[in-house]
Design brief:
Elements (H helix, E strand, L loop, with lengths): L1 E5 L5 H15 L6 H12 L3 E6 L4 E9 L4 E7 L8 H13 L5 E6 L6 H10 L3 E8 L5 E7 L2
Parallel strand pairs: 4-5
Antiparallel strand pairs: 1-2, 2-3, 3-4, 5-7, 6-7
Keywords: Transferase
Organism: Pseudodesulfovibrio profundus
Pfam family, one: Acetyltransf_10
Length: 150
């Protein structure tokens, strides 16, 4: 059984473990002090949401949001937990936390990348639509910006 909750300080190390797992897709993060400090600040400010496997209290997914820009900045689920609804739980919690208002944006992989299929399906299921090309991410992959109108 899994649950969704705001991250707490003790979730930093599990979050960084998840970040390290997805570095081949996202680019270097864990060894970047600015990234680590940014995550610490986001946790402190209630901007990090976790999906936790209850029996083990293990973080199996997380996302970082920015309430001011109404953006899902970062979202990942452990490889072994993908396909079980953890990503949908994170997006739903992020949208609830961001509340009503202006459109919500997320940057994800472009459709020409195999790894993009599940991510794009997830965002599509919540009403996100591709609005423009994004930048190439630090791992060298093309991205797109998707937006969910309110």
């Amino acid at each position: 059984m899994v649950s969704v909750r705001l991250a707490v300080e003790s979730d930093l190390e599990p979050f960084l473990g998840l970040a390290r797992e997805v570095e081949p897709l996202f680019g270097p993060m864990v060894d970047n002090p600015d990234f680590v400090e940014g995550v610490k600040g986001a946790i402190k400010n209630g901007q990090v949401i976790c999906v936790v496997d209850k029996p083990y209290s293990q973080v199996i997914g997380a996302c970082v949001i920015d309430s001011e820009s109404r953006t899902i900045l970062w979202l990942a689920v452990t490889e072994k937990s993908r396909g079980n609804g953890a990503g949908a739980m994170l997006v739903a919690a992020a949208l609830e936390r961001l509340g009503e208002g202006d459109p919500v944006q997320v940057t994800t992989f472009s459709e020409d990348m195999a790894e993009s299929i599940s991510a794009r399906k997830l965002y599509d299921s919540f009403g996100f639509k591709e609005v423009k090309a994004g930048e190439v991410n630090p791992a060298g992959y093309a991205t797109v910006v998707m937006e969910r109108p309110e």
